[in-house]
Amino acid sequence: MSPAAPRLSVVVPVFNERDNVAPLVREILAALRGRVAFEIVYVDDCSRDDTLAALRELKREVPELRVLHHVRQSGQSTAIRTGVKAARGEWIATLDGDGQNDPADIPRLLAERERAAPEVKLFAGWRVQRRDSGSKRWASKWANAIRARMLRDDTPDTGCGIKLFEREAFLDLPYFDHMHRFLPALMQRAGWKTVSVPVNHRPRGAGVSKYNNLQRALVGIRDLRGVAWLIARSRLTPVREID
């Protein structure tokens, strides 16, 4: 990898995903090598399986790969923020570590960014054809409908793991657990625009989901109220520097 700072950092949070690590890294390399200067930042959220060992092995052969490790489990939002803070690229692409997001969609998001206005700071993946169980799709549809009604973020799918956003804009957002589920609303609260981009969605390659529908619902209701409060209390003030 060039010693110069990469233009793009791909951040992947993982917890107990040992069998998905190597296939996903290979797909990221296939999608981005020769297209853009990039790095891959994996954040292991204190996995209990061999995920960290698999990442260490991959580091020997993949110069673009960096590995960060939480010494205690802290959750997906914290893992994403850890990766973004450590990233060297000005723009961040995120992927879920279970392989359901397709790295081949990252160039599509980059192309959308090139066509977009400068005030667009987030390009959110939109899983038009979900590859989940019927109950999970129903729960997601219900949650998206409630979120859209409360937050009015004009985003059909905030739960999609593949996103592209400006690093500086992300780090300026308020941080809280589960914030990654509300990035469009938080970006809009900060005065930026967001765009939803249709992307591919795949069945999980290996392992099991770390959440169930009840857990998502209970946490989501509390977080929705908190984000709605943040939006209601926000103030955007134009600033100009005096010569």
TrEMBL record:
Domain Glycosyltransferase 2-like per the UniProt entry, residue ranges: 9-170
Example of a GO biological process term: lipopolysaccharide biosynthetic process
GO molecular function, a single term: undecaprenyl-phosphate 4-deoxy-4-formamido-L-arabinose transferase activity
One CC-aspect GO term: plasma membrane
UniProt entry keywords in alphabetical sequence: Cell membrane, Glycosyltransferase, Lipopolysaccharide biosynthesis, Membrane, Transferase, Transmembrane, Transmembrane helix
Classification via InterPro entries: Glyco_trans_2-like, Glycosyltransferase_2, Nucleotide-diphossugar_trans
Coiled coil region boundaries: none
Pfam families documented for this protein: Glycos_transf_2
PANTHER family assigned: UNDECAPRENYL-PHOSPHATE 4-DEOXY-4-FORMAMIDO-L-ARABINOSE TRANSFERASE (PTHR48090:SF3), UNDECAPRENYL-PHOSPHATE 4-DEOXY-4-FORMAMIDO-L-ARABINOSE TRANSFERASE-RELATED (PTHR48090)
Name recorded for this polypeptide: Dolichol-phosphate mannosyltransferase
Record organism: Vulcaniibacterium tengchongense
Lineage, top ranks: Bacteria, Pseudomonadati, Pseudomonadota, Gammaproteobacteria, Lysobacterales
